[in-house]
Automatic annotation (TrEMBL):
Organism (species): Paenibacillus piri
Keywords linked to the UniProt accession: Oxidoreductase
Annotated PANTHER family: OXIDOREDUCTASES, TRANS-1,2-DIHYDROBENZENE-1,2-DIOL DEHYDROGENASE
Sequence ranges assigned to domain Gfo/Idh/MocA-like oxidoreductase N-terminal in this UniProt record: 6-124
Transmembrane segments: none
Name of the protein described by the UniProt record: Gfo/Idh/MocA family oxidoreductase
Top-level taxonomic group: Bacteria
Sequence ranges assigned to domain GFO/IDH/MocA-like oxidoreductase in this UniProt record: 134-253
């Protein structure tokens, strides 16, 4: 007897959905992409045809009214995440929302509460956490091989500054590099350390050419036990996508820390006792793993690995980072 699969609806035709999340969900064990919606019906139909999605809707409301759908993935601009998460929950749909989950922690709390009230699952789409190499890295740290952690450094930068139509360059839409890519090293440090930061200090470049969003930010997060995350993120800089965990006796380096290389090994490096070794990890589609974690929580009535509580905590840190950058102050969390 064939196992029932989660029927997904995609709320919007964003690049991340078309390029990664939809193909990943289609490769998952637990889900099928059954429908997609856009406010432009022709765009929805074209995307559906390109990605072999059976149903295309010309409005978001029409997709939410489809009783055959179990879960909704939301890749809309950041300022629309709260509105459509709540509407999806009220329509009885489980919600996987693209990061950042909202514009601030208060929005994240509202979204979590709405989903809880409706009795549906709610999670934020941080795909990197589902990659098995992060569990491997945490085991290496716990083994003591690199000693006590002294610091973490993460960077996620790219250059799309010449694209005037980019939604990331509109303040009211929740644009800026902290929202778009700074969330990754911040989330990763919290995940690895299994602790919350105590204070944040961030310096940022708010570009007048890009509606005064932060096009580059560099920050320091103070964690307990004298450990810090230093990070930088940017949308007007050469590309980097790295993470380093520094210990008293060694270090761990991830050359492709958040967005992995498609169809290639997602290796990382461990240096300990003066020797550097490569840890090879066979390619996996982390978007498929993300869909399966969320899908199994629906099918089995369990909780996803990372629920809305984690999203609220991450947004509290982003709130502090933005406050620090705008006011040029150290913010205690």
């Amino acid at each position: 007897m064939e196992q029932r699969k989660v029927r997904w609806g995609i709320l919007g035709c964003a690049g991340i959905a078309k390029r990664a999340v939809i193909p990943g969900t289609q490769q998952s064990e637990t889900g099928v992409v059954a429908a997609i919606a856009s406010r432009d019906e022709s765009k929805a139909k074209q995307t559906a045809q390109e990605l072999n999605i059976p149903i295309a809707y010309g409005s978001y409301e029409a997709l939410l009214n489809d009783d055959s759908l179990d879960a909704i993935y939301i890749p809309l601009p950041n300022h629309l995440h709260k509105e459509w998460t709540i509407k999806a929950a009220e329509a009885g749909k489980h919600v996987l929302c693209e990061k950042p989950v909202g514009l601030n922690a208060a929005e994240a709390e509202e979204m979590k509460a709405a989903c809880a009230k409706a009795g549906v699952k709610f999670a934020e789409a941080f795909m990197y956490r589902h990659h098995p190499r992060y569990a491997m890295i945490k085991e290496i740290i716990k083994s003591g091989e690199i000693g006590q952690i002294r610091g973490i450094h993460g960077a996620f930068t790219f250059n799309s500054a010449n694209n005037p139509n980019n939604v990331r360059f509109h303040s009211f839409m929740g644009g800026g590099s902290l929202y778009d890519v700074g969330v990754y090293p911040i989330s990763a440090a919290r995940f690895i350390l299994e602790q919350e930061p105590e204070a944040a200090t961030v310096h940022a470049f708010f570009s007048p050419e890009h509606d005064d969003v932060d096009m580059m930010a560099s920050g320091l997060l103070e964690f307990p036990n004298h450990v810090a995350l230093t990070f930088d993120c940017g949308m007007w800089a050469a590309g980097r996508n790295v993470l380093e965990v520094l210990g008293t006796d060694g270090r761990i380096e991830l050359p492709c820390a958040y967005v992995s290389r498609q169809n290639e090994e997602d290796h990382f490096f461990v240096t300990a006792k003066g020797e550097r070794r490569e840890v090879k990890v066979p390619y996996v589609n982390q978007y498929a793993l993300q869909a399966d974690d969320f899908g199994r929580s629906i099918l089995n009535g369990t909780e996803p690995l990372f629920d809305g509580s984690d999203s609220i905590l991450n947004m509290k840190v982003i709130d502090a980072c933005l406050k620090s950058a705008k006011e040029r102050v150290r913010v205690v969390l």
